[in-house]
Design brief:
Helix content is about 35%, strand content about 15%. The chain is of the alpha+beta class and about 550 residues long. The protein folds into two domains: about 80-250 and about 395-560, FAD/NAD(P)-binding domain; about 260-380, no CATH class. Strands 1, 2, 3, 4, 5, 6 and 18 form a seven-stranded mixed beta sheet that branches.
Length: about 550
């Protein structure tokens, strides 16, 4: 009996070892067939431009640009077992970034019944408005001073003009209302973009995005449409994009440079009533000697360059230009006038350095205002924004790239998604600190095609990412222009859902969509005629205008002599 029991135990032990061996072989075979993300090698995430992601989510190219060589281990280290195949969330629209303009698209698409989500690589919500505190809103008006602001943005701009929405908490309430019911994730890290062959003109389509949450969790999302809505093209720059020439080409510089960034100036304890009253009661010559050209009313102070020009900054990278100042109520004043040059919005170190540089200057600017502006004797700094006001980053080629001649020629398009207006205002760079105005359009159309990234079926550009030449961007970038476009596009996506893709839209499809926008949202995009300021110009003159060889105002005066 003892011998029988021993034989049975030996057989059981041998069988157990055999089973373990089979499991080991089977597991290794599956791991060999699968990539490190659990997919077959052919289906693994493609990195546009041939750049593989490092462990920190950067491509080799990006890591090199930041001064650090990519780690060899970063490419081969497998992901933890629980991250191999996170389930992909399915969406109709994914908006990347929380700048105001793209939020109008998200809101409109959600209201039209689409499944929408916002993810943002920035740690905090609200972009240039809430984080940069660019709370001085520029309206768009035509030559007859008629307001061009339409859509949901009109509530914001009306509230600002009327003094109801001027302080940060009031803007925060507006943003909360705008995004109510729309999921928003902050502080994400974009890791990989999967693309597949597109259906139109030999292009591609984005299929999937892999990102990490701020807690470090790996997530995947698939969407019908992707919207670039950051101030540094965090998503679009990962694709096969063509950068359009920037202001460096206009100024003849060899290095890429963007319009100056800004640090918004915040003051408290300002006696605005005295500031206004003494300015307006001064004899003209005395006022001009003290303040230069400008105006002050109950709400706004504009210009006053005679005062600002007297300020000498401590760095050549800094400049105090004429004021765009708003009285926010209760002695609080916010000013858009303090510029910092050579900032790269896509480089965290560049932004951090610029913020430190500008913050050191603030006490000196306060002292200058106290000494040179009546009513400012007891003024104090009222904290500082969390971020810079970023005016510009790279412009990428879209299906249609807006030109200065489109704007000054009052061109309207069959696929209008906005009616724009505003001077061709090129803010300063290190090459021209004051900047330059290249002309003043009456009004013009902005086509859907200027917000569709060239070469991709389903990638849209919002806000400052609009497809425009460096000169045309001076006008196109203004918030009411691109906010209306974004809202119109969000509505259109809802209306064509399940029927057509955006790239399938033809001229014959637009009247019905324009009619719907007008009837339901009071957005008028057709039947608008602007003042063509290029009537009689030759093709050669128009070509020189578009390249910047001709500055409109100067050239017109010369022609009239």
């Amino acid at each position: 009996m003892k011998h029988t029991t021993k034989r049975m135990m030996a057989v059981l032990i041998a069988a157990a070892f055999a089973l373990l061996a089979v499991i080991y072989v089977f597991t290794n075979q599956n791991e060999t067939k699968s990539g490190t993300d659990g997919s077959s090698p052919a289906a693994q995430s493609s990195q546009p431009n041939g750049n593989a992601p490092g462990a920190d989510g950067q491509t080799d190219k990006q890591a090199g640009a930041n001064g650090a060589a990519p780690s060899a281990d970063s490419k081969t280290k497998p992901a933890p077992q629980d991250e191999l195949q996170p389930p992909a969330e399915k969406l109709d629209v994914l908006v990347i970034g929380s700048e105001l303009e793209g939020l109008y698209l998200a809101r409109a698409a959600a209201d039209e019944g689409l499944k929408v989500k916002v993810i943002d690589p920035r740690a905090a919500f609200g972009g240039q408005v809430l984080q940069g505190e660019m709370l001085f809103l520029d309206e768009t008006r035509d030559d007859q001073h008629r307001l061009l602001v339409q859509g949901r943005a009109k509530e914001l701009f009306d509230g600002f003009r009327q003094g109801k929405i001027r302080k940060l908490n009031e803007f925060e309430q507006y943003f909360a209302k705008l995004t109510q019911g729309i999921p928003v994730e902050q502080g994400v890290k974009l890791e990989a973009v999967d693309v597949q062959p597109g259906q139109f003109d030999g292009g591609e389509a984005v299929k999937r995005l892999t990102y990490r949450t701020k807690e470090g969790q790996l997530r995947k999302v698939e969407a019908a449409y992707w919207v670039e809505n950051t101030d540094y093209a965090a998503f679009a720059s990962k694709l096969k994009v063509k950068r359009l020439p920037g202001l460096e080409a206009f100024y003849g510089q060899s290095n890429i440079e963007y319009m100056s960034a800004g640090m918004m100036l915040k003051f408290k304890n300002v006696d605005w009533a005295r500031f206004q009253q003494t300015f307006n009661s001064m004899p003209t010559e005395e006022r001009r000697a003290k303040y230069g050209w400008g105006s002050i009313d109950n709400s706004f102070a504009i210009g006053l360059t005679g005062m600002t020009n007297k300020y000498k900054p401590t760095s050549d990278r800094l400049f105090l230009r004429g004021l765009n100042a708003v009285h926010q109520r209760d002695g609080e004043v916010l000013i858009n006038a303090f510029l910092v040059y050579t900032v790269n919005p896509a480089d965290d170190a560049s932004v951090k350095e610029a913020m430190e540089l500008t913050k050191k200057e603030l006490p000196l600017i306060l002292k200058h205002f106290r000494e040179h502006a009546i009513g400012w004797e007891k003024a104090e700094l009222n904290d500082t924004p969390n971020y810079l006001y970023i005016r510009e980053y790279d412009h990428y080629e879209t299906d249609y790239v807006l030109k200065p001649s489109d704007m000054l020629g009052a061109k309207m398009f069959w696929d209008n998604v906005s009616i724009g207006g505003y001077p061709l205002d090129l803010q300063g760079t290190s090459a021209n600190k004051w900047g330059i105005e290249m002309g003043r359009p009456d009004k013009y159309g902005m086509p859907l095609r200027s917000f569709m990234l060239k070469g991709y079926d389903n990638v849209l550009l919002a806000g400052k990412n609009v497809g425009a030449s460096a000169i045309a961007y001076g006008s196109a970038r203004i918030q009411p222009n691109t906010s209306l476009a974004a809202e119109s596009i969000g509505v259109i996506l809802g209306q064509i859902h399940g029927k057509k893709q955006l790239r399938e839209l033809k001229e014959a499809d637009m009247p019905a969509l324009h009619s719907y926008l007008a009837s339901k949202y009071s957005i008028k995009l057709t039947g608008v005629t602007g003042n063509n300021k290029l009537t009689g110009w030759t093709a050669d003159e128009i070509a020189k205008l578009d390249t910047g060889e001709i500055v409109y105002a100067q050239y017109v005066k010369k022609k009239q002599k």
